[in-house]
Amino acid sequence: MNSISNKLENLRKKLPEHVTLVAVSKTKPISAIQEAYDAGQRIFGENRVQEMCDKHEALPKDIEWHMIGHLQSNKVKYMASFVSLVHGVDSLKLLHEINQQAAKHNRVIDCLLQFHIASESTKFGLSESEAQALLKSSDYAQMQNIRMRGVMGMATFTEDDDLILQELGSLKSINDRLKAEFFKDEDSFDIISMGMSGDYGLAIQQGSNMIRLGSSIFGKR
Ligand SMILES: *Cc1c(COP(=O)(O)O)cnc(C)c1O
After folding, report:
1. Fewest 10 Å CB contacts: which of 90, 170, 180, 195?
2. From the CB of 215, is ligand 1 less than 6 Å away?
């Protein structure tokens, strides 16, 4: 029995059906991803563009690659032909570049707005008012090659469950308000990406439907 497939199988048994599992494979070798693939996993998350491109080259083409990390505009072009979901959109400038690069490939790239919900200042992301300004902008209104699918965020790395619950709950509330204000008639604004190995149980409790798990599948990095 190999451990990656065991861990995936155990996770699948306990995850509610509405929760999508992104296997975060950053820093892990091709062989580990192939093992997860062979166990049925098709969605993988990476946080560096070059590493994701190399892995995309080397691995089966029915894998959905999610960019989960902080993204620089000048790197978007390398992944625009294949990336399936960009979790970390935190500026209009970045979204503009994703739209332009997607157009070059005749694609529509799915995106999530990343919010800064943690009390830690090290984490990236928009405030709610910044997101509202982005969604109200005429530049955004003209983008034909991106589709806004929902929100993403990371809670503080802490043992304090109450703080984590509060932060993850705030992301769910932001999602609900944005949906009501900007995406009322669009069923496609439907992804709440929150929850990592340490807090995915709490995240699901707070309304997450997409969790990003690295170490609990592949072991320590
Ligand atoms: C690394 C990473 C994860 C996975 O973290 P684990 O604690 O290993 O599950 C999830 N989301 C983002 C944005 C990451 O960078």
Report:
1. 180
2. yes
